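Q: What would this complex look like in 3D?
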Amino acid sequence: MTMKTVVIFIIVIAVLILMVFAFFPKPLPPPPGPSQVMEIKPPTATGKVDDLVAATMVEISDEELLIKEEEKDTALISLDSQEISDFGQTINESEF
Amino acid sequence: MTLVKLSMRVNFKKILKTGFLGLTIAGVLVPLWIFAQNANDNQKAKGFCNSISNLTSKYDQRITDRETKLETKRVEITNRIAERWEARDEKLAEKREKWDENREEHFDKLEEKAETDEQKQAFLAFKQAVTAAIASRRAAIDKAIDDFRQGVEQAKIDRKSAADTLRNTFRNSIRAAFQKAETDCDAGVDPATIRTNFRAEVNAAKEKFETDRKEMEKLQDMMKTLINTRKEAIEKAIDDFKTAMETARTEFKAAFPPEPVPLNE
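A: Here is my prediction, written as structure tokens for the whole assembly.
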């Protein structure tokens, strides 16, 4: 096998790979779902007032992790965009 | 030099020949293609009146199918939102329970340090203040969540209403176009004219649908307002809580001698 043949072979393979990536449909991203919310472990009680107050601040962070998730729900509302848009395609003038 | 000139002349002749041949073929094929298109258009125009009722029912069927799909998607969205809210409510309740238990442990340990009546009194006042601050913060956060969810529900209703109006307007325009075409066919109007008018009306309906649909998608701006309002309400609840906690801590500490600071030698 000559050098020229090898180069042509590599180019053909590269083109084939590019074609596969270009023409095959990319998998759609999964629809947004409830993500796994991280848990924060409460600190051990020490009998110190500062530690108790600090624990309540950690509690806020723990709650916030979950509460912030709610914002993602707004994206769900427009999940019917495609179905609504499809109404405009119910008729094609080229059929007539 | 002479050889080069000769070679160029030969090439030029070849190009001329090829170009001429190409133009001749195009000259024959293009009119044929145009003629075929016109013949096809004429045939379609003639058949238009004959098939108008079939086309109407075909279109109605498509609309019905798409309505079913949209309704299915809406149910899916409603269910997904409801599932998420339910799961999140359960999780929040679990988290709060976990922190309540932990705080009780903190209170128990703190109470052990209260020796004098004044200290015991200060502990009780502190416990009461902390418990009230937490209840107040949770109530404010719950309200922010409820308001947000009501906003999401309202946005869903508004979107449904806007989408239904959009679809009905489009459907009515197309039906009107079909009816007009049927009437014209019955009146013996030239089929080509009927078809041209029909296509123009369909195009206009489609364009209007697209413009209105893009406008409808702007309803999403409402979501940003909802998110910001909720964020501000939660931030306020947290700030109020922090202030209440700071006051409680200061008052509690006043009843206890300062803890010795460990010296690093």
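A: To summarize the key features: The mean pLDDT of chain B is 87. The helical segments of chain B are 2-112, 117-186, 191-217, 221-254.
Q: Very helpful, thank you.
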